[in-house]
Amino acid sequence: MISGLETVAIALTEPGSGSDASALRTTATPCLGGWRLTGEKTAISWAMNASAALVYARTPGSKRSSGVSCFVVPMESTGVSTRHMVGMGCLPLGWGSIHLDNVFVPESHVVGEEGRGFTAVMNHFDFSRAAIGLMCLGAARQSLDESVAYAQQREAFGKPIAEYQGVSFNIAEQATHLEAARWICYRALWLRETGESHTSLASMSKWWPPQVVRAAIEIAMRTHGNLGYSTESPLQQRYRDMMAYLVAADGTAEIQKKIIANEIFKRGTVSL
Are 30 and 81 in contact (CB under 8 A)? Predict the structure, then answer.
């Protein structure tokens, strides 16, 4: 995996549960020498490209977060099939569904503690949500940098459009939002590094940066005028890619807000 020769998908989301990940129905039935996995995962990033998947499944009869374990499932295993789901953006991610039909997984392929898989993946999300936020902000920064360069070159009414407040103030606002959102992500990762609670900040890192990048790209498109709307511009691709992080990838904005609100009312204060 480190060398890039093997790539792995994270298979948690299911058609009937979506953001309610603890309601997953994929089962892992104990058998001689291991387990038999049956179920379906959907909207899985890298499903069409991965050589293996981390599949989250529950023992029959268990409920909610209890009884969920994580299994390494090689994609060439008997009983594994995939279906490509073509999205409006993020096309290289190979988004798709993974179907498991009585797939045998040996005991050695259990990741972490048996029955503790749900807790482990939620802990992982506290990292990946901040990382996704920073990835989104990279697209925002690139779009704004391109707008700054264009605004200094493009002239209207005898001077560069950067000299008009209708252009420059928009970029100033977006640069401010970008900087603030970046520090939320950094603080979440710093708290993780120091072993402190950071679930709220991780969720803030996931719902707000995609909003920031959407606004930044819209401003960049308007700054570039008709060129920004052209399919020849990278802005349209970034806009379509960004939408994926508003509706998927470690939980929707609404789920993140629910997590943040739960943490606030549990503490009794908005202070972190």
Answer: no
**The CATH number of domain 8-115, selected from 2.40.110.10, 1.10.260.40, 1.10.760.10, 3.40.50.2020:** 2.40.110.10
Q: Can you read off the two tokens belonging to residue 138? A: 């990279």
Per-residue pLDDT of the chain (272 residues; tens, 9 = 90+): 889 889 999 999 888 776 677 788 999 999 999 999 999 999 899 999 999 999 999 999 888 878 899 999 999 999 999 999 988 888 888 899 999 999 999 999 999 888 888 888 888 888 989 999 999 999 999 999 999 999 999 999 999 999 999 999 999 999 999 999 999 999 999 999 999 989 999 999 999 999 999 999 999 999 999 999 999 999 999 999 998 888 877 778 888 999 999 999 998 888 87
Domain boundaries, the chain: 8-115, 118-267
Q: ∠ CA 203-205-206 to the nearest 5 degrees? A: 65
| Architecture of the domain spanning 118-267 | Up-down Bundle (1.20)
